[in-house]
TrEMBL record:
UniProt KW keywords: Aminotransferase, Pyridoxal phosphate, Transferase
Modified residues annotated as N6-(pyridoxal phosphate)lysine in this record: K184
Residues at the active site: K184 (proton acceptor)
Keyword Lyase in record: no
UniProt family annotation: Belongs to the DegT/DnrJ/EryC1 family. L-glutamine:2-deoxy-scyllo-inosose/scyllo-inosose aminotransferase subfamily.
Protein name: DegT/DnrJ/EryC1/StrS family aminotransferase
Organism: Streptomyces morookaense
Obligatory cofactor(s): pyridoxal 5'-phosphate
Residues annotated as signal peptide: none
GO MF entry, a single one: transaminase activity
Length: 393
């Protein structure tokens, strides 16, 4: 494929570049086996193998494969045995799935301002905060608040990231959630994982994700006297097989992202008013993130890049205070559940200035995706093209 074509296609998820029949051993195995339900056989399923591999690679004690990251977030929340209407603090800048998972678990989201790096500003959390979801957006590994009993790390955009102390993103809080959706670091179209270090939490999640049963593989589900209700989030062998194949490419992908980021730092546009936000050693930066001096400059840069066929995006869509469901407290329930359970008179937002600064940061942010799959020479050409475009702005 020509470089121009590839540059123009960088809205492709990174992992999709590894979708290749010659590499689909696990999927061939699953189909050859003739069983796509993970609990149908007593031999180790591909889903279990995937969980074991992820556990080793991320240093996570317990792993459960599910359909997507939204289910994983719901499992994390519900396994804490909350009261309905309990508050969950979430960043004001993230994908709406985070708020959706809170609401569909019968809990109430409280939006919290973000800091310069667009991560939840933990200094705003009240002393008695019980539940927080921290999202590591675009591969920037965010610090976790201290002293909060249930910190859920949303790693949908940060598979393979590490904290400064070497621990993997997703393993430092109560639970970590991952997505293999089309637009993520690795992809099986849809797909999710949840990890936790807490064996009781894992047992609760495993039951809830399989109709409330503690199923023994090869058997019909059975219910213990202390069973609770559940849903069906059980993954399929076909999806798990593709996730496994994708996961084999994680290190290659991380190296490709890091290399292109370094190349881009050598080709920064010689132009004032466009600052590149830094990359910490453990980040899985999937894009170059520019902070522009004004919204006008940002919008002109978007127009120039787009005109030249260079993929780019803004993060405006992640501004949750303006999302209709949150702004309008929308619900499908006739009584407005779970918003109806929110403590009266308590603002469901923690912001110093009504999110003005957060909005301003977003308005001035521009992302240019990195292409980890390109050979180094093509990455060099790609970053030069970005540089030239931005210098022409
Ligand atoms: C994509 C995404 C999700 C939802 O993931 P799905 O697997 O699509 O359910 C949640 N949080 C963040 C930050 C995301 O980017």
């Amino acid at each position: 494929m020509s470089l121009d074509k590839r540059l123009g296609q960088r809205f492709l998820p990174y992992g999709a570049n590894y979708l290749d029949w010659s590499d689909m051993h696990e999927l061939r195995e699953a189909v050859g086996h003739g069983v796509l339900f993970r609990y149908q056989t007593e031999s180790e399923s591909i889903a279990s193998r995937l969980e074991r591999r992820v556990s080793q690679r991320l240093g996570a004690a317990h792993v459960l494969a599910v359909h997507n990251c939204t289910e994983a977030l719901r499992l994390a929340l519900i396994s804490t045995r909350p009261r309905t209407g309990a508050l969950v603090h979430i960043p004001a800048v993230t994908f709406v799935a985070v708020a959706g998972a809170v609401l569909s678990s019968g809990l109430v989201p409280v939006l919290v301002d973000v800091d310069d790096s667009l991560s939840l500003d933990a200094t705003l959390l009240p002393q008695d905060t019980e539940r927080v979801i921290v999202a590591h957006m675009e591969g920037t590994v965010a610090p976790l608040p201290e002293g909060v009993p249930y910190v859920v790390e949303d790693c949908a955009q940060a598979l393979g990231g590490r904290f400064p102390d070497g621990r993997h993103a997703g393993t430092a809080g109560y639970a970590g959630t991952f997505s293999f959706h089309h637009n993520k670091v690795l992809t099986s179209g849809e797909g999710g994982l949840i990890v936790t270090g807490d064996p009781d939490a894992w047992a609760t999640m495993r039951c809830y994700h399989d109709h409330g049963s503690a199923r023994v593989p090869g058997r019909y589900p059975t219910w213990n006297a202390d069973a609770h209700y559940g849903e069906n989030f059980v993954t399929s062998e076909g999806v798990a097989a593709i996730q496994f194949q994708q996961f084999r490419h994680l290190d290659e992908l991380l190296a490709g992202l890091e290399r292109m980021h370094a190349l881009a730092m050598d080709e920064l546009p010689d132009r004032s008013g466009l600052e590149v936000l830094p990359r910490a050693p453990g980040d899985v930066k999937i894009s170059l993130r520019f902070r522009c001096e004004s919204r006008e400059l940002r919008d002109t840069a978007v127009a120039t890049l787009t005109e030249r066929g260079i993929a780019n995006w803004t993060l405006d869509k992640y501004f949750l205070p303006a999302h209709p469901v949150l702004a309008g407290r929308r619900s499908l329930y006739a009584d407005g559940f779970p918003w109806s359970l929110a403590p009266a008179g308590l603002p469901l937002a923690l912001s110093r200035d009504g999110f003005a600064r957060t909005r301003d940061l977003l308005d001035r942010t521009l992302c240019v995706p990195l292409s980890p799959e390109l050979p180094e020479q093509e990455q060099v050409l790609a970053v030069k093209a970005v540089r030239q475009a931005l210098e022409a702005v």
